[in-house]
Automatic annotation (TrEMBL):
<feature type="region of interest" description="Disordered">
    <location>
        <begin position="1"/>
        <end position="20"/>
    </location>
</feature>
<keyword id="KW-0677">Repeat</keyword>
<feature type="compositionally biased region" description="Basic and acidic residues">
    <location>
        <begin position="9"/>
        <end position="20"/>
    </location>
</feature>
<keyword id="KW-0106">Calcium</keyword>
<feature type="domain" description="EF-hand">
    <location>
        <begin position="76"/>
        <end position="111"/>
    </location>
</feature>
<dbReference type="InterPro" id="IPR018247">
    <property type="entry name" value="EF_Hand_1_Ca_BS"/>
</dbReference>
<comment type="similarity">
    <text>Belongs to the recoverin family.</text>
</comment>
<dbReference type="InterPro" id="IPR028846">
    <property type="entry name" value="Recoverin"/>
</dbReference>
<feature type="domain" description="EF-hand">
    <location>
        <begin position="112"/>
        <end position="147"/>
    </location>
</feature>
<protein>
    <recommendedName>
        <fullName>EF-hand domain-containing protein</fullName>
    </recommendedName>
</protein>
<keyword id="KW-0479">Metal-binding</keyword>
<dbReference type="Pfam" id="PF13499">
    <property type="entry name" value="EF-hand_7"/>
</dbReference>
<dbReference type="Pfam" id="PF13833">
    <property type="entry name" value="EF-hand_8"/>
</dbReference>
<dbReference type="InterPro" id="IPR002048">
    <property type="entry name" value="EF_hand_dom"/>
</dbReference>
<dbReference type="GO" id="GO:0005509">
    <property type="term" value="F:calcium ion binding"/>
</dbReference>
<feature type="domain" description="EF-hand">
    <location>
        <begin position="165"/>
        <end position="200"/>
    </location>
</feature>
<dbReference type="InterPro" id="IPR011992">
    <property type="entry name" value="EF-hand-dom_pair"/>
</dbReference>
Length: 211
């Protein structure tokens, strides 16, 4: 009986590490090229780094938080890293695969402004129900302030001032994005408002590194 042909995934399973002993990698290089805006060589380089840092093939939330803590040593990055992790974890498995990481990085680094905004919406839509509430916006804004070390110790007079400033910022942004003033921001409202804002558009374009 003839041996069945290899599937496309099996056929390309070892292309990510062509100079290493064969290992069962459940991903095809050609498929990753189609799904992202990275070249084969770029994907190979990123995969080697990924396997070095994450030998079990996935990134768990605690490891993700450790990475953020190294980049933002002067603030508390844990809360913001939690929200970013959820946005990266597309299939809500509790771990980020190389494919999920690569697809998201492709969006953030080389995606259109529209694609980046859709990802940003996912970040702020904490419960994933398709709408951003004032509470969700507030949670992420507070997380950003903690990340940057801008929040005073809880309970101190300075902390109350920080909380008031954060609340004012949330109110201002929420009024701007909630076009029909119904108490939630939909993806359509988010995109329409942000695409009209030159400041937001320019800040998103800064991610385009041309790697």
């Amino acid at each position: 009986m003839a041996t069945p042909p290899e599937s496309p995934v099996e056929e390309h399973a070892y292309e990510l590490e062509p100079n290493r002993p064969p290992k069962p990698i459940p991903v095809a290089l050609e498929e990753l090229c189609r799904q992202t805006k990275f070249s084969k060589q770029e994907i190979r380089v990123m995969y080697r780094g990924f396997k070095t840092e994450c030998p079990d093939g996935v990134v768990h939330e605690e490891s993700f938080k450790d990475i953020y803590a190294k980049f933002f040593p002067h603030g508390n990055s844990a809360l913001y890293a939690h929200y970013v992790f959820k946005a990266f974890d597309v299939n809500c498995s509790g771990a980020i695969s190389f494919r999920e990481l690569l697809v998201t990085l492709s969006t953030l680094l080389r995606g259109s402004v529209y694609e980046r905004l859709r990802w940003a919406f996912r970040l702020y839509d904490v419960d994933g129900d398709g709408a951003i509430t004032r509470q969700e916006l507030s949670e992420v804004v507070v997380a950003v302030h903690e990340l940057l070390g801008r929040r005073a110790p809880p309970g101190s007079p300075a902390s109350r001032i920080d909380d008031a400033k954060a609340a004012e910022q949330v109110d201002r942004v929420f009024r701007k994005l909630d076009l029909n003033q119904d108490g939630v921001i939909t993806i359509e409202e988010f995109l329409e408002s942000c695409l009209k804002d030159d400041v937001i558009t320019r800040s998103l374009q800064m991610f385009d590194t041309g790697l």
